[in-house]
Amino acid sequence: MHEDIEKLRVLQERDRSIARAEQEIAGLEHERVEVNSRSADAESGHEAAQLKAKELEARKNALEVEVQAEQEKIRTYARQQMDTKDNEQYKALGRQQETCKETISDLETSEIEVLEEIDSHAEVSQAAKAELDEANAAKVKALGEIDERETNLKAKLEEFTSQRAESAGKVEAGALKQYDRLRARKGTNIVVGITHGACGGCHMKLPEAEVIVIKTGSKINYCPNCGRIVYYTRDMVMESD
User: Fold this and answer.
1) Among 80, 156, 160, 234, which has the highest number of CB atoms less than 10 A from its own CB?
2) Domains of the chain, earliest start first
3) pLDDT per position in the chain (241 positions), as tens?
4) Cα atoms in the 13 Å half-sphere on the side-chain side of 78
5) Residue 183: CB partners within 8 Å, gap ≥ 6?
């Protein structure tokens, strides 16, 4: 094997480590979004419960105001009865008072129903609040763990980057330039072995004459199909094996 091939393989492993670390760091943001989404769902549920509680309280208050208005009408009609000397008007005012009392009865029935609904909804509100508290606690814990992992990954990435620079410095300039050009296009699978006479990257068959040259290890060789750097070691399985 050509001496620069081994150096390039080491460099490739450094690049793979860097790529994995960068991918994991990028994935942490997705995890953060999921964690925040779960918390947001609980927040929405709690807000909906609070809004419902306010609506019920407003309905109760509105009914109380209506009852008070009807009671005021009864008092007004009663005073008018005391002032009138007309028998028919007196009876009419009495009927109006009875109508008000019936309206008050209906309003009070509705108010009782709302109060029962308020009591029932209080349990829903408590459950929504408990779920929100639990979600927020889980969010704080999860985000803390994600932050810790990110810190560790960034430290590793910094270490890998330093190791990469050291490994790159050991590779011949021309070979490094070609390697970096290939890496930009094909990622971190560009220094590959051959097996059964095929490139380990694109898996296309290599010309027999090319395989013979690769086996000599006299120079850096490239796959004529995909351009990857190809090499041979004695433990590889050749087509004739």
Assistant:
1) 160
2) 13-168 (1.10.287.2610), 173-231 (no CATH)
3) 778 999 999 999 999 999 999 999 999 999 999 889 888 989 999 999 999 999 999 999 999 999 999 999 999 999 999 999 999 999 999 999 999 999 999 999 999 999 999 999 999 999 999 999 999 999 999 999 999 999 999 999 999 999 999 999 999 999 999 999 999 999 999 999 998 889 999 999 999 999 889 888 889 999 999 999 999 877 665 554 4
4) 9
5) 15, 190
